[in-house]
Amino acid sequence: MEEKRCRRTNDYHHSRGTEVALLRCSALVLPYLSLAELAAISSTCKTLNQISKIITSRRTSDASRGFENIPIPFINPVLGDFEPYPYFLYTRVQTLELNPDFHQSWGSNTDNGPDLKARRHDPFLFRVEDAHGCECVRCDSGDSLCHCLDSGELLLTRECGPSCRCETGCGNRVTQGGVSVKLKIVKDERKGWGLYATELIPKGKFVCEYAGELLATKEAKRRQQMYDELALSGHISPALLVVKEHLPSGNACMRINIDATRVGNVARFINHSCDGGNISTVIVRSSGALLPRICLFASRDIQESEELTFSYGDVRLRPNGQQCFCGSSSCAGVMPSEHT
């Protein structure tokens, strides 16, 4: 009798030890899985199902994984649609092309841990060596003659940067701290996921940078061709932004290709509107930074719960291309398309 009791006790401790080991291992591995992978593994046992639910809850509560100062939740009100969130890798700033095998933790209990500040990204991908910036302490003070300040521009186009003496709290660094307003990502039955305001955003207010992989033009063209084919079959929602800065003559003098399809921030969810939308795209340069950044500002007052939109372009080379659901009075019925 005593021998059976001891055997039962040993079996219990062995079972309990196995469960603890599974929990520890799962907590390390599962946050790196995609939505499809997480769904598949959650069906294998009760313990993994419970852990998967916790991870899903954390993911839907903040698309930014804690990289932004303000959490940005996912909301899916579409009846019969059970997609809790779209899976992508998050970056607050421009990044070089990432290895396809790169993974990022999302939904672990350390996403908002003490090392968060260290994990937030430098807004300047490349710096100009020995560049000279301003010597101001605070460049936005009334008596400042800082040469980094825009002179009477409606929207900010120049800021202090890595070569300047002033620190991150300077009022002439408004685009360098990530998302600055309260937002949410909501799914629409026809348009898919979109970005919405959860507070009044006044005209001229900085919203966020358009962040993603910075691509060479050859790679951007290759990806756009691939995305066009996949988008027509409904297998992908591409977020490759091409911005061209023109000389007064009309010739392009600079081109920036930012792909937020796989790696990006919340700007990847901003949908197109044929009437131009309520967001302006602005090329912002910073003292000492080699590359400009694409920053998004409110072009008019944006009301709480209103969707954020901007124009993807006016050219439509494919009359039978992807259908547009912007709903504006000037809707062309087809999404913009042009040679990348």
Structural class by sheet pairing and helices: alpha/beta
Sketch the major β-sheet: 4 strands, mixed
Order of helices and strands: HHHEEHEEEEEHEEEEEE
Q: Which geometry do the CA atoms define?
A: globular
Number of helices, where a helix is a run of at least 4 consecutive DSSP H or I residues? 5
Beta-strand content bin: 15-25%
Q: How many DSSP E strands?
A: 13
Keywords: Chromosome, Membrane, Metal-binding, Methyltransferase, S-adenosyl-L-methionine, Transferase, Transmembrane, Transmembrane helix, Zinc
Pfam families: SET (PF00856)
Subcellular location: Chromosome
Organism: Forsythia ovata
Set out the fold topology.
Elements: H1 2-29, H2 35-42, H3 46-61, E1 74-75, E2 89-90, H4 116-119, E3 158-159, E4 183-188, E5 192-197, E6 206-209, E7 212-215, H5 217-232, E8 240-246, E9 252-264, E10 271-272, E11 279-286, E12 293-298, E13 309-310
Parallel strand pairs: 1-4, 2-9, 3-11, 10-13
Antiparallel strand pairs: 4-5, 6-12, 7-9, 8-9, 11-12
Helix pairs in contact: 2-3
